[in-house]
Design goal:
280 residues, 12 helices, globular, mainly alpha
C-alpha cells in the first residue's frame, strides 16, 4: 500500500510546489510593474501605461499569445469561462460584500486597539503626486493592479491546479496561506491583521472556486483595495480617528461595525453557496 501511494503523494506534492511557484511568479512580478510606472512617469501617463499593461497581461494569462503549448494550461489556470447573468449577479453581490466584510473587520480591530497610523502609512507616501484627484487616480489604479495580478496569481495559477489535483479545501487553504505570508512583509501587517488577511484569502478563494471564474474575486479585491489605498494606507480619503472601546465604551459606531461585519460575511457566504449550486 505504501509503495503504491508514495508516487501518488509525490505527484501531488510536485503539483502543489509548482503551482505555488507559478502563482507567485505570475502574480507578484506583474503586480510590481505599476510602482515603476508611478515613480518614473507622470500620474496620468503612468495610469495609461498600466491599463495597457494589464490588458496585455490578462490577455496572455487567459491563454493568448505564446507559448502555444501552454495555452490550455493558461486558460484553465485563469478560469477563462464566461459568466451567465445569474452568475454575474451573485458574483457582484459576493464581491461587494466581501470588501465590506474586510473593512468592517479592520474597523473592529482598531476599536479594540489604537490605530497605528504611522505604521499603516509607511511605504505608501504619495505626496509627490501634486493634486487630490490624481492621488485618487493613483489609488484606483493601484487597487486595480493588485486585484488583477494577485487574483490571477493566487486564485488562478496557484489555486486552480491544486483544486484539480488535491481538492478545493486544500487549494483554498494553501493559496490563502501564501497570500497571508506574502503580505506579512508589509509594514501594516500587525498580529491583529493576520486573521483578517488570511480570512480575506479564504473568501476570495471561495468566490473564485464557486463562480468558476476569477472575475468576482478580481472585482472584490479591487473594491477592497480602493478603500485600503485611499483610506487606511495613504489617507487620501481621510483618517480613522475612533478611539478603542476601552476608552470610549461600546458606542453606536462600534455596534454598526459589528452588524456590517456579520451581515456582509453572511451575504458573501450566501453568494458562494448560490454560485456553487448553479449549473456549469
Amino acid at each position: 500500500m505504501s509503495v503504491q501511494s508514495s508516487p501518488r503523494a509525490g505527484s501531488r506534492l510536485r503539483t502543489i510546489l509548482l503551482s505555488i511557484l507559478y502563482g507567485l511568479l505570475v502574480g507578484m512580478i506583474a503586480a510590481n510593474v505599476w510602482p515603476i510606472f508611478l515613480r518614473r512617469l507622470s500620474t496620468p501617463l503612468a495610469a495609461v501605461a498600466e491599463l495597457l499593461f494589464l490588458g496585455a497581461y490578462v490577455w496572455w494569462a487567459a491563454g493568448g499569445g505564446p507559448p502555444r503549448a501552454w495555452v490550455a494550461a493558461r486558460v484553465n489556470a485563469f478560469r477563462n469561462t464566461g459568466l451567465t447573468p445569474t452568475q454575474w449577479g451573485w458574483g457582484l453581490l459576493g464581491a461587494v460584500f466581501f470588501a465590506l466584510t474586510v473593512h468592517a473587520a479592520i474597523v473592529l480591530l482598531f476599536r479594540f486597539m489604537p490605530y497605528p497610523t504611522a505604521q499603516f502609512r509607511r511605504g505608501y507616501d504619495i505626496s509627490f503626486i501634486p493634486t487630490v484627484p490624481l492621488r485618487w487616480l493613483a489609488c484606483i489604479i493601484s487597487a486595480l493592479s493588485a486585484g488583477t495580478c494577485e487574483e490571477t496569481g493566487f486564485r488562478g495559477y496557484m489555486q486552480r491546479p491544486i483544486e484539480h489535483r488535491v481538492g478545493a479545501k486544500t487549494a483554498i487553504f494553501i493559496s490563502s496561506l501564501l497570500f497571508m505570508l506574502i503580505h506579512l512583509s508589509k509594514g501594516w501587517a500587525s498580529l491583529g491583521m493576520v486573521p483578517i488577511i488570511f480570512g480575506a484569502g479564504i473568501l476570495l478563494g471561495l468566490l473564485a472556486w464557486s463562480s468558476r471564474s476569477l472575475v468576482p474575486a478580481i472585482i472584490g479585491h479591487t473594491i477592497m483595495d480602493i478603500g485600503l489605498f485611499a483610506y487606511w494606507w495613504t489617507g487620501t480619503a481621510g483618517s480613522f480617528t475612533a478611539r478603542p472601546i476601552a476608552d470610549s465604551g461600546v458606542d453606536r459606531l462600534f455596534l454598526i461595525a459589528c452588524c456590517v461585519f456579520v451581515l456582509s460575511l453572511a451575504f458573501v457566504l450566501l453568494a458562494v453557496s448560490r454560485l456553487r449550486r448553479l449549473p456549469t
